[in-house]
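Posting this for the archive.
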Amino acid sequence: MQKTLLTKLSIIVGLCIVFSIGLSMISDIIYERQYYAESVIKEISEQHVNPQEVINPFIAIPTTVTPECQSNASDTPNIKSKCEPSYSKIETIFASQTQAAQNLKVNTDTYKRGIYSATSYDGQLTFDQSYTLDETLKNLDQIGTTIDDDADKTQLAKTITHWNKAKLIIPVSDLRGVATLPTVTINQKTIAANYPQIPMIENLSYVEADIPKDVLEQLKNPTSQNNKDSLVATSSAGINLDKSEVNSQLSNPKDNQALNIVIDLPLAGISSVTTVPTGQNFTLSMHSDWQTPNFIGKALPNTKSITAKGFDASWQNQYLTVANNQYLSQCLSAPNHRCTVISESTLNTDSHSYNPDSFESSRGLTADSATVASSNQSVLLNSFGVSFASPNDVYLQTERAMKYALLLMLVSFGTFFLFEVLKSSRIHPIQYLLVGCALFVFYVLLLPLAEQIAFWQAYMVAASACVGLIGWYSYYVFGGLKRAVIFTATLAGLYAAFFGILSTEDLNLLLGAIFCFVILACVMVMTRKLDWYKVT
């Protein structure tokens, strides 16, 4: 008698092992379909627009630095002095205050490839900035003097600031998402923005706007431009001016005016949008109609509100802002543009290879152009934003459902087995096999249905089909309606319980553990008086 019991249990265990192998094959299919869906989304991004990363706009002014020739008094007169070549760099002026607002409309129906679609967004970004330039302007056109360790060597660097080429830079990682040029208002004066014909900043995609000369003149003395030109001419002649004299001629304390800039930037993208804060006081507020945001980046929002109509969030992080100021200004001031700003949103598809430690070595940049030319630096700025996670990620939900597949089969086989030992029913191993195949087919149906309709609908259709088939078959296996109804109700309750566990993302592990405990308790209660030695 015990031999028959062990044989039946061995058959059940063997069937579970066979079906486990089949479930692993379905898992491979899930990963394959998921990879194909991601490749389709990547293809849509390549043909339309990538995830966007926007850097807070700033003012860039190109400068040319000409190091003075070095000479040594101990050298013979016939030896020529060492002269370093001139190099160009970018001086940056960041906003003293920025209020950024993003209003995005998100949908999944715009870009499709068959059954696959990309989550795209389209909306408006507004930057309301204020610049206080008096302190910055003092330091742009001054002569720097450095003394070498050898007292006989002195290097005087002449810096020429090209004010007529000053630009307002609006960096956007993928300009294909800027279908129309942004509207720029400087001190209540509308300025035309344009795509750069000859980029001032290499390896950075951006839209630019000219800074009007009259606006710059309002921020300096009425004669400051003439003073600046005379300073440049004087320095070119080799006359060393006192630093305080230069500063006093370039700025007047009473002209401490603010430069107000408002930028309305239309933006489209796919999957996610991030913003790089720069300046001093940067705040970002975002509003969208998307109900399932995933906040990403180096900082979470300070406040957020998620409802059925969408979400609102706001960020402010002074540490990341100051760090970005340092990284960006030092990178753009690298001689001969030998530093690249990497966009994190497109880092995976970018041709640049980013080394997180590479920028650390560029902090000691010198005027030696030959040395700089031999190495390219890169910097990845700190950003934060939102990833528009799909509320119906069928592959993730199907994979989670697969984790309970073996438990579902064990409970189903165990119920069959209990009917055998408690009600003296005789069930053939082939009947176990057929019921197991019906349970297995549920997962075969679930994935393709979920790709076509909502996951809960696919789950309901697949579960109803399998429960109905197994319930009809169990009527003939048990030879009676009552036992078939009990088994069918038990199976339907299992599917409903598993769907409830899958729906509660935060408590699924706890509910799953409780469910296993309840099932075990029910089996122990039902078999508490059973004499297993008498089971045939």
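The longest strand covers residues 97-113. The two ends are 5 Å apart (CA to CA).
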